[in-house]
Specification:
Helix content is about 35%, strand content about 20%. It is of the alpha/beta class and about 525 residues long. Helix 14 crosses helix 17 (about 485-495) and helix 17 packs antiparallel against helix 18. The chain is globular, with a radius of gyration of 26 Å. The model is unreliable at about 510-530 (pLDDT under 50). S-adenosylmethionine (SAM) binds near residues 20, 22, 87, 93 and 119.
Amino acid sequence: MSSSNNRYGLRRSGGQHGDVFTSPEVVSYMLDLVGYTADKDLSKVKILEPSCGEGEFVLEIVRRLRDSSRRYGFDFGKALLDNVFAYDIDEKKIETCKARLAQDDIHVSLDANIRQGDFLTQQIPAVDVVVGNPPYIRYEQIPQDQLSNYKQLFHTFHYRADLYILFFEKTLRSLRPGGRHCFICSNRWLKNEYGKKLRAWIAESFCLQTILSLEKAPDAFQEEVLAFPAITLISNASPAASFTFAEVTSIQQLENVRGKKLPSPQSSDWSGVFNSIGSDDTLLTIEEMGFMVGIGVATGADSIFIAKDLPGRVEKELLLPALNARDMSGNRLHWSGKYLLNPYKPNGELISLDDFPMAAEYLLFHREALQNRYVARKNPGKWYKTIDRIVPSLKDSPKILLPDISGNQLIFVDEGKYYPQHNLYYITGGTIRQLQLLSALLMSDYVKNQLLNITNCMNGGYPRWQSQYLRKLLMPDINAIKEDLANRLLSAYHKFDLNSLNDVVDTIVSYPRQKSLRKRTSVHQLEFDFSI
Ligand SMILES: C[S@@+](CC[C@H](N)C(=O)[O-])C[C@H]1O[C@@H](n2cnc3c(N)ncnc32)[C@H](O)[C@@H]1O
């Protein structure tokens, strides 16, 4: 398979899905945890980083190996070539990783050790240590052509597994007896359905040593995108009676982590562990329910691309009704009548101005201002492109629209009439009814209180919606709400009756909690619950 800079699509920040680089403090902590420290003779310790990115782990590994070689007098270059292995699918990141090593005075050719390719399909060596931060790629984003192959290769690929599950399986299988495995990763697999087979396999065949929750430590990564990270340490040894659970609220606390011993899980049901630390495994994030969170289009020149008088000035087929936060104030949605000029063809390429004489005249009239935008200076041939691509089907999709800052208590569902601008977040991916149910949950005090806990970013008592916070919210699965409660919730939503809405939400959130307590009483019941 060839390298891909954009295999799983891009996030709005410009980064790729699956890319979140680990903070240096976390890298050091994890290498200490697996015992890869320079005070030891590392000359024969084989170590693997399966998705090295720009080399956060690799650099520290190589520095430690060099320090160890100085202390123990072994040949650093040979030890490096014999023992350090890394992979990444993205050639550019590998180049950056190698350039960073060269800046660090490492001039050994590492072409055989740091390889480009899909790690999941590579032949890999048996190793003593695995460390890393595997890619988080949701099931829907895994390329279709790979899904069936991966399903054959990995017995822990279950339900709608995220790609990182497969990285766990492949790397755990590469461990030599006694070998240690430490990943920083989303903690969702520890609790949810898609992590079930991996949990069962680890409980039976490995020794779970440590789970360190970083759920409340926003600084674990160089960018705050992953909602619920955890570090796990697992070794290739027989299961032990207990493991250590710890939690930190900032990576500064990694210097002095104190954990408590808990009984090791015996099966796929690890809920006892989370029971004892007080979390609720029945709640889901918006994305886990199958919705997508996005932000509206940034053009770089709103006064040119978005205006009321565009009809009549440019061809009709290039226009989309545009909605922004100002159109949604005072708990009312009132479209201002502005249109967005979409300069893209359905296949995502820019239109040719020869094909649209009216748009050509309009855009050429504004050429100077458009060319002065950063996005156009970077790409002068495409001077009339917008910062973000415009995908007209977004207009037609039912979606929740959330102004970044608003004084609204009502959350709007657009049935498919408008294209959101950059001061609106949107949630798509469900029917109008599902989106209305989700809106009702988002309007509840239950969610407001979570937002207050996650961030102080409230705007005079009203939520400030931002995608990183939206992604962290935990809610009862709207698809599992009982019919009568769902109808009551919708009725409260439509009447904009916040008291009733909060009452219904309180009833709903207490229902799954009772259910999860029941589930925790027996594995058998847990399996039954999933099958209904
Ligand atoms: C979460 S980033 C972590 C990067 C680095 N380990 C760190 O901690 O900073 C995940 C990395 O996985 C890489 N990746 C994604 N799919 C991959 C695959 N199938 N095989 C190997 N690497 C992959 C991405 O290019 C990205 O660099």
